[in-house]
Amino acid sequence: MSEWTLFEVFIRSKHGLNHKHVGSVHATDAEMAIENARDLYTRRNEGVSIWVVPSAAITATASDEKEPLFDPAEDKVYRHASFYELPDEVGHM
Amino acid sequence: MYAQQVETGVKAVKSLAEMGPEERAFQEKIDAEIKIEAKNWMPDNYRKTLIRQISQHAHSEIVGMLPEGNWVTRAPTLKRKLQLMAKIQDEAGHGLYLYSAMETLGADRDEEIEKLHSGRAKYSSIFNYPTLNWADMGAVGWLVDGAAIVNQVVLQRTSYGPYSRAMIRICKEESFHQRQGYEILLHMMRHGTQAQKDMVQDAINRLWWPSLMMFGPSDAESPNSAQSMAWKIKRHTNDELRQRFIDQTVPQLEILGCTAPDPDLKWNEERGHYDFGEIQWEEFYEVLKGNGPCNRERLETRRNAIQDGAWVREAAVAHANKKQKQQAAA
């Protein structure tokens, strides 16, 4: 079965929410991947929509890229609302 | 436990000072309860131990379908049959979640399944016992799934991310299994004939000790425990989990109005736990070695399933190829 394609499965659990990665399935093609994903990941109404993507088609960040990619965001506290102090009389903003 | 006696390939647990920089950074992450993900650096033995443990766990789910499959055509009512089929389908699903988690470590599913079929990989000793009467379906759900839950609840916090996430998903579904099993027994005890009540007690008598063995050998006999605990692959020792299982199960046993086949089982006020008799470990090791009542039959069933299904897999590939050609031509 490992010769079959590995697909990553994404499920939208409710209308209005994002599709979220839930796991993977093996299948001969995308149609079978959808059927397998339905049997495996939505036995108890966990989804209203399924995406399947061949795992090989996903480009991911490497773990050693973590610092150069994500550290620059760390010292930019002024991007958060809590950075700006306003007097109490302004109320909720 | 669904994975018993998992080799770590490590003789002694290293201290932080004895580790190289990569391994130290890895261990510090584990100590800080940060999950390890597939692409992170990990010691070779951590990877191999996880592949062994997760594949053993997955194999247990898959082989675990067989004792229950025995009762699909024999279930007493349509309701019970539907419940049983839903439970068996869940077990297949649990096996697949776990194989997926295992594959993130670079293991090949076919290779690992081949190891199971050739007898080189283990699965839980419990599934080598036969399911002889309908009450066994209740006792399996209550005791076997109950023991699995005790083990799996703590594995939700295991250090490897994909394994932990598979466990969370599995635990959500597992409590249905235990409740349906217990309800089968309770129904027989409250509404059954004397013969049916005797069946319940008979099932408990046969499955009680094998269920306690599911947690694996006692701590003193578990040479791999220390390393697996340091890596947080395991979160509690075999004896701790076994005690937890007994403590929560005995009151349920009393509600059923049944007894355990253990004259030494009694509440110890001082310890705040139940004391229990000695487990016959020779039996456990024999079953693990392949000499349980059903070992040969289970593996033969698995091998036949793979062989007899070969044409279905080939046809699926041929169908997919044909469709692809038709789409390309259109």
Automatic annotation (TrEMBL), chain A:
Gene3D superfamilies on file: Phenylacetic acid degradation B (3.10.20.520)
Pfam families: PaaB (PF06243)
NCBIfam families (UniProt xref): PA_CoA_Oxy2
Protein name (record): 1,2-phenylacetyl-CoA epoxidase, subunit B
Organism from which the protein derives: Marinomonas spartinae
TrEMBL record, chain B:
An example Gene Ontology molecular-function term: phenylacetyl-CoA 1,2-epoxidase activity
Family annotation (Gene3D superfamilies): 1.20.1260.10
Assigned keywords, A-Z: Oxidoreductase
EC assignment: 1.14.13.149
GO BP terms, alphabetized: phenylacetate catabolic process
Gene Ontology cellular component list: cytosol
PANTHER family: 1,2-PHENYLACETYL-COA EPOXIDASE, SUBUNIT A, PHENYLACETIC ACID DEGRADATION PROTEIN PAA
Protein's recorded name: 1,2-phenylacetyl-CoA epoxidase, subunit A
Record organism: Marinomonas spartinae
